[in-house]
Amino acid sequence: MEHGSFSDHTKSTFSLTDEDHTLANAVRFSLNQDPRVTFSGYSIPHPSDNKVNIRIQTTGDLAADVLKDACQDLMLMCQHVRSTFDKAVVDFKMSER
Amino acid sequence: MAGRGVKQQTMSESTLETETETETETGTESESSSVDPKGGGGLRWLEKLSDVPMGKLPPHLEFQRTHVECKADAPLHTDTIQYSGAYASLGVDNSVRMDSFCDNFRVEVMRLTEDDMEFDMIGIDPALANAFRRILISEVPTMAIERVLIANNTSVVQDEVLAHRLGLIPINVDPRLFEFAGNNTPNEKNTIVFKLHVRRKPNEPSSVKSNELIWSPKGSEFLLASEDSKSADTSSKPRTYTSFTCRQDSLPEFSNNAIKVMENILIAKLGPGQEIELEAHAVKGIGKTHAKWSPVATAWYRMLPEVVLLQEVEDEAAEELKAKCPVGVFDIEDIGKGRKRATVARPRGCTLCRECIRGGQQWEDRVSLRRRKNHFIFNIESTGALPPEVLFTEAVKILEDKCERVIADLS
Ligand code: SF4
């Protein structure tokens, strides 16, 4: 669901269905951390629509690629959070005993 | 000339230069000031001027980036600065690279019980912490009663109210063992059936508690209406509201692990002679659809409070400060000669009620209330389906799945 211009793929709006602030805000965070991004933001056009629009403008890379990388980064972060959390829980249970 | 010499001297003191350098600068003042601008490391003093970009934020900006400051009227610097180029003009890269995230991210478990946990998440952006919280509340699936077949209800509680009350009872079963039913016929993989049949004798009014919901592992026992009317000559098994292919308690995961609901929850009150007979079918769902599927009673976080005394608070003022705080953040210590001084003993307990900075400017000058923007005290209270630590891991996995779906959509 990419809506961009045909000539310039460095600026695009992506419309994700069945998503809300949960993913959009997290992705916006990860996009903003990317130095290739000049602008990123998201909006939910109507609260009773199940969709969210994410706008990306880049310094020259394809917006779709940048979004993909942002999701990839987010996934890696999640994996790290999960392993760190699991380790902390195991450590805590050990120390309780 | 002399003026600059003095400046160099203070610079070297404040930045703790090596001893020899300090000596040359302070010892032979006239010489150093004439040699320095051209000499080898002489330009280093320039770099140490406070407004020259050195790849590090000046302290006040760094403070604004990492802390929310709570003043008596309003909090300051509440936004998080996410944009990677926010400090580009200062020569500071604000992007978070994976390796620096991994180095800095920490989790510390504070409390962990069967259904309740508190942990600190340090070095993470609120965008992520909030995503986890939202997923915990509305997207981690559980089982809850969705369809109630009422055969008889002579109690004062109306059918629909009764059904709603049943729906909100937490079911202590691992939802990962079940599938989403969707439009499939109810079977042993997606439905749990409970029976409730209570009848009170005359002169025996009483309450009906959730303990009386009995798991029925072989599925529904009520016949489909169409079956009832047909003649009973068909030898095949009569069709009921569920089509289980086997008994649920023959499945390995439930064989010696009966499914129970949370006990001691009041469902209805029965008068003498009143009766309730019903079947309740539980299915898998998420909190977004209805709060009964939410696996947590609450999931919430707060930023770590920091309470700093900007001045020495002594004697009566110290007593007053200690009395002001309703949660006992401050303590009093003796500093001899009968004098007392206030100390910050338990900043973590601070609820940020701002009581301690009310009562005039002098209090705002004494105490500074802050919150760390990337240190979260995260609390999870489970309703009993899964332990809280498992809920959190599940929530993180769900966020990963969402990302994966977007990547798949784009490729
Ligand atoms: S803000 Fe409230 S809880 Fe926090 S230190 Fe001040 S008085 Fe105590």
Automatic annotation (TrEMBL), chain A:
One of its GO terms (biological process) is transcription by RNA polymerase III. CDD domains: RNAP_I_III_AC19. Its main location: nucleus. GO terms for molecular function: DNA binding; DNA-directed RNA polymerase activity; protein dimerization activity. GO terms for cellular component: RNA polymerase I complex; RNA polymerase III complex. Pfam families: RNA_pol_L_2. Keywords: DNA-directed RNA polymerase, Nucleus, Transcription. The keyword Cytoplasm does not apply. It is found in: Nucleus. Residues 12-83 form the DNA-directed RNA polymerase RBP11-like dimerisation domain. The keyword Transcription applies. HAMAP family: RNApol_arch_Rpo11. Belongs to the archaeal Rpo11/eukaryotic RPB11/RPC19 RNA polymerase subunit family. This is DNA-directed RNA polymerases I and III subunit RPAC2.
UniProtKB/TrEMBL annotation, chain B:
Residues 1-42 are annotated as: Disordered. CDD domains: RNAP_I_II_AC40. The keyword Manganese does not apply. It holds the Pfam family RNA_pol_L. GO terms for molecular function: DNA binding; DNA-directed RNA polymerase activity; protein dimerization activity. One of its GO terms (biological process) is DNA-templated transcription. One of its GO terms (cellular component) is RNA polymerase III complex. It comes from the Eukaryota. Residues 116-409 form the DNA-directed RNA polymerase RpoA/D/Rpb3-type domain. Coiled coil: none annotated. It is found in: Nucleus. Residues 16-28 have a biased composition (Acidic residues). Keywords: DNA-directed RNA polymerase, Nucleus, Transcription. PROSITE patterns: RNA_POL_D_30KD. InterPro entries: DNA-dir_RNA_pol_30-40kDasu_CS, DNA-dir_RNA_pol_insert, DNA-dir_RNA_pol_RpoA/D/Rpb3, RBP11-like, RNAP_Rpo3/Rpb3/RPAC1, RNAPI/III_AC40, RNApol_insert_sf, Rpo3/RPB3_RNA_Pol_subunit. Belongs to the archaeal Rpo3/eukaryotic RPB3 RNA polymerase subunit family. This is DNA-directed RNA polymerases I and III subunit RPAC1. It comes from Morus notabilis. The lineage of its organism: Eukaryota, Viridiplantae, Streptophyta, Embryophyta, Tracheophyta.
